[in-house]
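Memo subject: From amino acid sequence to discrete backbone structure tokens
Action wanted: Derive the backbone structure tokens from the amino acid sequence.
How to read it: Take the token row as a discrete description of the fold.
Attached in line: The record itself begins immediately under this heading.
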Amino acid sequence: MSLGRRKREQQDLWVATCDLPKSPGHPFYSQLNRLLDEAKFDEFVEKRCKSYYKDGPGRPGIPPGIYFRMLFIGFFEGLDSQRAIAWRCSDSRSLQSFLGLDITQPTPDHSTLTVIRQRLPLEVHEAVFTFVLSIAKVKKLLKGKSVAIDSTFIEADAAMKSIVRRDTGDDWKAYVRKLMAQEGIEDPTDEDVRKFDKKRKKRVSNKEWASPTDSDARIMKMKDGRTRMAYKTEHAIDIDTDIVLSAGVHKADESDTATFCETLVKAQAHTMLAGSESQIKDVIADKGYHSTDNLVQCEAFGVRSYIPERESRWHRKWIDKPSECKHAVYGNRRRVRGDRGKRLGKLRSEYVERSFAHVCRTGGARRSWLRGLEDVTKRYLMCVAGRNLGVIMRSLFGMGKPKTLQAEGAGGFRLIWSAIVAVGRGFRSFCDWVAHHIELAESSVLEIAAYYVDFIARPNLNAT
């Protein structure tokens, strides 16, 4: 057999659109489009964004529904930048079908996403976030009675090497040269500056240093020990349904106690804007949120707090404080030590940390490529809205992300098998019997269920 060679022939000048290959669409995105069309998502965002456009001559802009869908794609595909989103949409025909574009229409460029983001204010993005919550409310996935709050850091689009002094505007090298001049070292070389800076004790403070490119970013020490310019994100999640009710972005040097009440109020406001009449009854947080003012404020809101106290060597004194402070602190301490408080604390660590893993780690939001608190908040809100859509999709269709379908065949069997093993010791013999008598890889879920029914009908369950 001879070697085949690729022929470089000239393409046809005219091609009929009916002859072009069409994508059947991805099952996940097809179901998501049906969900959004059922809720009239496009009509909502077009009506909400109409006041920010002017009717007149010129080419119409990109529909807002396409813009927000592309941001959702950024979460579902784990893309952290607008360039990556634009490239992925232009490369995939199934995503073009999800966006509602014809085969002859080009996908929006990353610069178009920037223009639309700058045109639409933060209020519009928050309205889209609450619209997704309203979909969860219609599907009975929004309770909003027990809320867990926690925070994490995301890296900003600013480098530590470019920070400058707030008072003089000197960069790091110029600052070290001035220190060397004070020590009597004149005209040092770059190597001398590096050696001098390496030996001295260094400490950077947000009060003294700032980023010239992103004034809202702050210097923070990450969990892995690195020092980076960062923002703080805070989630308020419904632990009954795994829906994020509020996702705020703050400056990284703002303490958890300072942003606690704002996040709690936003969670209640978003629940009301979503059309739910439920009221937050319980709020759970870690010990970093414990403060007397927050506990008193929770009492004023009519919310039961479950916030552990920090360890202290001294007993608290209430001589110079109002009586409601003592009542709030002791009531919170009693609830935290109870069985319900311990159970809610475990649920908080499970649900909130998992939401951070979904949004920041696999959703592409751990590193921001935008600058400014407002722009970072816009993008992060849409990532969390996409995460909420994934929770709704998982509840309705059994898949929360497009890649879930890759393991769909084995997922059903693993789910049944895990449930059987978790029932108790009385069914271990059934597991052994299945492993010895049937081929698991070639059996369907219905066949294994039939084997199970036949097995439990035996008089002795422990027989093999």
